[in-house]
Specification:
It contains ten helices and 15 strands. The protein has 299 residues and is of the alpha/beta class. Strands 1-4-7-9-12-13-14-15 form an eight-stranded parallel barrel, surrounded by six helices.
């Protein structure tokens, strides 16, 4: 099982601002040196709370592209890229280029979006998100896998569109979809190479949603074993953060105890866990590195 780490691009509560690119770069390189399998960035434009107060966030594709040049081994993923924010055919073109830049290390994570204030602020439509997402995948998936698509939909079109040059990796970068709910799970089953569900502490918390995903695969005639399962896992250190900063349902304890918790995901057939540290500090990431090494010792 692979283990990756999310680097949040939004406001860091301990810095009082989002990380700069240099800070993100240094953290990504530290994770690569530690041996982690992947580094993940998420895609948001703005956070706005009720009442109008806002929190900033860095732009994901610019940072991800720069990390593609800075790093040399770790896989780089989006958790997840909102398909409404970018034209789907252009998204495929961008993904093919970044996969070439990284030497085949991109995982293209995609999602429908959920944070209405950023849609409103940047002028993106917030209606029919599942339908827009499905049309996006009807364009992105064949472009990456086959290099060509001819599609005319209600929300998007890509008429006689081709990727030229084709992705350097046969079949292009894998497409990961983060989803829940019957319709989104069926869309995932039809088009994705990987599926993500998040955020959890213990592996047993994923049992219900994984059964639903297996049912969705069978409903569209797909063998569930052909869809790689990835899970976002919260790893918490309340002794660093204090209880008021901690999320609900997280793995905690000694390095060996958290490693054993991660190993439960492996035993359950998960292919890739993606860890989110709470609090989002250097000390917590150092502790997570100890967990990673403890996990590797389990054999």
């Amino acid at each position: 099982m692979k283990i990756g780490v999310v680097i949040p691009l939004g406001r860091n509560e301990h810095l009082g601002r989002p990380r700069t690119y240099q800070e993100v770069r240094e953290l990504a390189l530290a994770l690569e040196r530690a041996g982690f399998d992947s580094v993940w960035l998420y895609d948001h434009l703005l956070y706005r709370r009720p009442g109008g107060s806002s929190a900033g966030v860095q732009e994901v594709w610019t940072f991800l592209s720069a990390l593609g040049e800075a790093t040399s081994r770790v896989e780089l993923g989006t958790l997840v890229l909102c398909t409404v924010f970018r034209n789907p055919a252009l998204t495929a073109k961008m993904a093919a280029a970044l996969d070439d830049l990284t030497g085949g290390r991109l995982i293209l994570g995609l999602g429908a979006g959920w944070n209405k204030p950023e849609f409103d602020a940047f002028g993106y439509p917030f209606d029919h998100l599942a339908s827009r997402f499905e049309e996006s995948l009807e364009i992105i998936a064949p472009l990456l896998k086959e290099g060509r698509v001819d599609f005319r939909g209600r929300y998007y079109s890509a008429e006689d569109c081709e990727l030229n040059p084709r992705p350097s990796r046969p079949g292009g970068p894998p497409v990961l979809v983060a989803s829940s709910g019957p319709r989104m799970l069926r869309i995932t089953a039809r088009y994705a190479d990987m599926w993500n569900t998040a955020w959890y502490g213990k592996a047993s918390g994923t049992d219900g949603i994984r059964r639903e995903m297996e049912e969705a695969c069978r409903a569209v005639g797909r063998d569930p074993s052909t869809l790689e399962v990835t899970v976002g896992v919260k790893v918490g250190y309340p002794e660093i953060a204090g209880p008021e900063e901690m999320p609900r349902d997280y793995l905690t304890g000694s390095a060996e105890e958290v490693a054993a918790g991660l190993d439960e995901y492996r035993r359950a057939g998960v292919g890739h866990v993606i860890c989110w540290c709470a609090p989002d500090t250097t000390e917590a990431v150092t502790r997570l590195t100890e967990v990673f090494h403890a996990y590797k010792r389990l054999g």
